[in-house]
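Recap slide: Histone-binding protein RBBP4-like N-terminal domain-containing protein, sequence and predicted structure.
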Amino acid sequence: MTRSLKNPKKAKRKNKGSKKGDGSSSSTIPSAPAKVWQPGVDKLEDGEELQCDPSAYNYLHAFHIGWPCLSFDIVRDTLGLVRTEFPHTVYFMAGTQAEKASWNSIGIFKVSNISGKRRELVPKSETDDTEMDSDNSDSEDDSDDEDPDSSKSPILQLRKVSHEGCINRIRSMSQNPHICASWADTGYVQVWDFKSHLNALAELETQGVQGVASVFNQDPLAKYKHQDEGYALDWSPVDPGMLASGDCKNCIYLWKPTSAAAWNVDKMNTAHKASVEDLQWSPTEPNVFASCSVDGSIAIWDTRLGKSPVTSFKAHNADVNVISWNRLASCMLASGSDDGTFSIRDLRLLKDGDSVVAHFEYHKHPITSIEWSPHEASSLAVSSSDNQLTIWDLSLEKDEEEEAEFKAQTKEQVKAPEDLPPQLLFIHQGQKDLKELHWHTQIPGMIVSTAADGFNILMPSNIQTTLPSEGA
């Protein structure tokens, strides 16, 4: 387990970016091809630091809401199902990890005026005959970077609801996004209705209004105390109001709604030999969910068939910290382990014994979050305690001809290491002690992550903003 932030201090913003150590301007053109800096492999010399290359992103913004947040969720909104044009507005719910239990709160907040630019994946070729034209083009590109709205910073508007104890995990119900469940280190799972706060944020004007309103006191709709604290929590995407929670005492509880504001909580049979770390409902079956544990196993449950799992199998040689069920290819389940590895399984192959279709050992520290893209069935994002957020596309394979053609187009401006997996699309760094990430289901290509030093909103320039895959 690699979850809790012990005695966290107030978050501080960090500078991020490419390798620079001689004090020269970031606009200096290198005389030799730039080298990809590999975390955990390459070392920084004295006086060197990493700085962000803004051309790698269509958008990148860092912010914090006071105390660090171990968990958050992106709230589904009514601004459009597929939004590809800047500026963007995003709604969140997050739970704090304050120094004192009484200082904690759930933050309901809106970030608006998220402005950025789409960039070319391959730079335009230049020749001597068009040198003057390319100079003009460069100046035009520079001016394009300075978007008319870029002078207006993103606007954060926040409302807080008091919460006793640190929040280990928080989840918004997809069918009714104002309904939220929180897992506290006090052992309580609570269900809240934040409709009034979301409505108030939606009605607020965004013209320079920032800051925090007073902390609201509010009673939860429902609460249930486990024997111990926990982290596993998930709403069913198929059956509205169905909730599952798992704790550090190996126990899983099923929450069945009896009305819009009441639930019956029923304990399932013990299937794991250690703490239940994560839960994921099936994206297609209303009665099926998966659980993972510190004992290294994953269990598949069908509530129609009783209180015991349908099957259970050894998934990793260390704690299984997180799992993610692919909502576009429901036979695929991803899992991340404490040893830094993550695996992809085809659940149709479970009966044959070996269901692993992909296994990666790129990260060297515990996997803290993993999530499939809601817009591309073969893509997923992973965060690790090595302070890296990586994006992968499992459909990619090494192609010598395509690689040679790309190198010719880019004139080998970047020298990439030979041992990087071809499925690795992007590496994001700069956050300290990454804890959780989520793709935005309505804004293709947008990822949000939380860490000890705050939040990042990022849109890598090499992630295509396509429409949802067929059948999404």
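The first helix runs from residue 131 to 145.
The chain is about 5% helix and 40% strand.
(End of recap.)
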